[in-house]
């Protein structure tokens, strides 16, 4: 996990971001763009974006590969923590697996776990959310 330096004036909670995602391969790029724009608006320094943006790509891509497809992305900021949630309609729950060195793929959740302070999933009506939490304040 890395942390970024966030100005003190952004310590208040920000309005949650909810972004519908397209049903095609542009979803990860759109999600990264929306998250980047929101984080810069919250006052997160450009250098503090990389971990969150990589995790965004991984969660949205995993929803395509292991869910039905990503339907929406949600981002909340409060108390120096960002919570990123990706909703999909799939019933298959995420499973953290240690990838084989010979595998070219299957490292998404390992990356999300390494980059975030916490991650998980929750079932909800019609599918599930997979989420990750990032510390972005300068304590």
Automatic annotation (TrEMBL):
<keyword id="KW-0808">Transferase</keyword>
<keyword id="KW-0723">Serine/threonine-protein kinase</keyword>
<dbReference type="InterPro" id="IPR050267">
    <property type="entry name" value="Anti-sigma-factor_SerPK"/>
</dbReference>
<feature type="domain" description="Histidine kinase/HSP90-like ATPase">
    <location>
        <begin position="21"/>
        <end position="132"/>
    </location>
</feature>
<dbReference type="InterPro" id="IPR003594">
    <property type="entry name" value="HATPase_dom"/>
</dbReference>
<keyword id="KW-0418">Kinase</keyword>
<protein>
    <submittedName>
        <fullName>Anti-sigma regulatory factor (Ser/Thr protein kinase)</fullName>
    </submittedName>
</protein>
<dbReference type="InterPro" id="IPR036890">
    <property type="entry name" value="HATPase_C_sf"/>
</dbReference>
<dbReference type="Pfam" id="PF13581">
    <property type="entry name" value="HATPase_c_2"/>
</dbReference>
């Amino acid at each position: 996990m890395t942390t970024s330096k966030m100005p003190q004036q952004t310590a208040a909670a920000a309005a949650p971001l909810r972004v519908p995602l397209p049903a095609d391969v542009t979803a990860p790029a759109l999600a990264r763009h929306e998250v980047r724009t929101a984080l810069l608006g919250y006052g997160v320094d450009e250098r503090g974006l990389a971990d969150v943006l990589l995790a965004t790509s991984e969660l949205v891509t995993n929803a395509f590969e292991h869910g039905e497809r990503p339907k929406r992305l949600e981002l909340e900021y409060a108390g120096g923590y960002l919570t990123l949630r990706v909703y999909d309609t799939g019933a298959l729950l995420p499973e953290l697996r240690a990838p084989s060195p010979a595998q070219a793929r299957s490292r998404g959740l390992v990356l999300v776990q390494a980059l975030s302070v916490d991650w998980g999933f929750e079932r909800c009506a019609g599918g599930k959310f997979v989420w990750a939490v990032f510390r972005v304040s300068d304590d």
